[in-house]
Amino acid sequence: MKLHLILLGLFLFYGCSSAEQTTPEDANQPPQNNNPRWSIPVAAVLDGGPGKDGIPALENPNFIRADETTVLQNSDLVLAFKNGDEVRAYPHIILDWHEIINDNIGDVSMAITFCPLTGTGIGWGRILNDTETTFGVSGLLYNTNLIPYDRLTDSNWSQILNESVNGDLIGSKPELYQLLETNWGILKQMFPEVEVVSTNTGFSRTYGVSPYGNYNTDHDFFLFPVDKDPRLPSKEKVLAILDGNRAKAYQFSDFETDNVFRDTYGGNELLLVGNQDFITVFALESDMVNLEFEYAFNAENGAVVLTDNEGNEWNVFGEAVSGPREGAQLEQVEAMMAQWFSIPAFYQTQLYSE
Known about the structure:
Layout: H1 2-15, E1 45-47, E2 58-59, E3 63-65, E4 77-83, E5 86-91, H2 92-98, E6 100-105, E7 108-115, E8 120-125, E9 127-128, E10 131-132, E11 135-142, E12 145-150, E13 156-158, E14 163-166, E15 176-177, E16 180-183, H3 184-190, E17 195-197, E18 237-243, E19 246-251, E20 260-265, E21 268-274, E22 279-283, E23 293-295, E24 304-308, E25 313-315, E26 320-322, E27 335-339, E28 348-351
Parallel strand pairs: 2-6, 5-17, 19-28
Antiparallel strand pairs: 1-11, 3-17, 4-5, 4-16, 6-7, 7-8, 8-15, 9-10, 11-12, 13-14, 18-19, 18-27, 20-21, 21-22, 23-24, 24-25, 25-26
């Protein structure tokens, strides 16, 4: 435990300093939020320690080719997004220290929001009230989960709820972009042309060394109070599909027998595909419900993870890359990878195995 406290102390120190000594006053200073109303229990909103912008979000970071990175290991987890021919990777080892990356990928303005304390990575659109903005780290937590704020109105948002919970935009929801979480080695295999966020961020951080020690693997180690659900080990990674105030969670073990299967949830016919390195899900529209999908991922197939009885090949982002439906897109689903404990803390949660 002493090691945990030392690491946390170092994180709080680094959270308030940078190589360039960047402070909120150096950027566009957001308006003060004088709205006292919260849609979540305000007594449960806790100060995480570093303060507002003490954990500095990144804006339009530098990207490098896959063969140019010297820090990222094949086993390191990344969040990935594809828009057109452009594929970008956002490593956990950088997000651990910055939590939010504001980026523009072609015509998509997105904030990659990541909470190291819940393992949740979610893509949010940055167009609010028809205006492009950026998100920053408020320094506040709810159920040990990140509370970002937007720099347009200074409203506070719950990451896992995907909703503004305080401020002028209270009750608003961002446009969601489905991200793929996998390890760097697999993503490079799928997309050799992928670009990855460089560790040359302008901030002095020990990228590759977690500021939280063994937090992700110690199921009993928590920095802030939160209810735990005993059905699974607290820090086990699951895919959570959201439907209003409900969620359904899928484990990696669900894919040991069948790498692709169907399920019904939230009024959608779902297609799930996964292995020991990734899980993703799509909704099947009426003209695709009768397709028969088979698992097709291997080293030779690159990003292709599915084939069907029409002769189509589908990549991990749900794009038909060959066959009669080439150019078609499987429908995205409101879903995220998460540490198990964090989903029942926010949603009435069903396990796929139940």
